[in-house]
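User: Can you predict the 3D structure for this chain?
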Amino acid sequence: MSPCPCDAVKLSEPAEPLGIGQVVVAIDEAGTARQAGERALEPGVIARIGDQPQAGKGLYLRHRLSIARGMDNAAARLAEVHANIARVCKPARRAPEDITLIAVSKTHGPEAIQPLIDAGQRVFGENRVQEAQGKWPALKAAHPEIELHLIGQLQSNKAREAVALFDCIHSLDRPSLLAALTKAMDEAGRQVPCFVQVNIGNEPQKGGCPIAGLPAFLEQVRAADVPVAGLMCIPPADTEPAPFFALLAKLAADHGLSGLSMGMSGDYQTAVMLGATHVRVGTALFGARG
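Assistant: Here is the predicted structure, written as structure tokens:
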């Protein structure tokens, strides 16, 4: 399926808000798209859905890679990420409070998580059910206001455990998993909001609903009475992510969805400028994994 280009606008100070399909990014002439260096934000062009990303040309965001180098303080790292989100919200004419920051704590133990909780972070993400079961029940018991999101692939045989532990699931992508989650939610008497994961780059090695199959699958999810939080994607690695984020935003708008789970440590600022409502940030908050 060949995606249609969205409307383009120049980034300036228009009085009117952006319309559906209009998305703002900034320019970066760096050689690597996902790991921009310490550069200031410079407004520029629009990402057109369907543009072929080319390394070192045009559609890049001049921003700091939001990894707080040299910061060994969780509160400082958290403040840095929030400041970056607020900074890019301004040219995108968005409110920072509309963005949910998910601190991705996979591979990190309670001793690394607790300082972020103490600093005020209340939404966390894990990739695997089994790992989360080993550390989060006690943390959630101590801090019942915490939201825990499953952001990794979910096997159907883990649906019951996922429904019991997580407050949101970001990887609903196939009918078999939908059936397992529906059964688990009915048994638990608990409705867990789910993002439908889209294979936005048509990569065979990745999970996600194919773009062409999205309309039919969303119909199935809605018919099963599973709450649809929005759409989620992971763009291809080492590729400019902006056109893929813009495409996900268009797909969401086409299907009447407002939630967009997209953007990680290397590109969450681009994602926010293109409409992300949830960003999944790990390295910028916890540091590089060993």
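The beta strands are 100-104, 123-126, 147-150, 168-172, 194-197, 228-232, 260-261, 278-281. Residues 1-71 have pLDDT under 50 and may be disordered.
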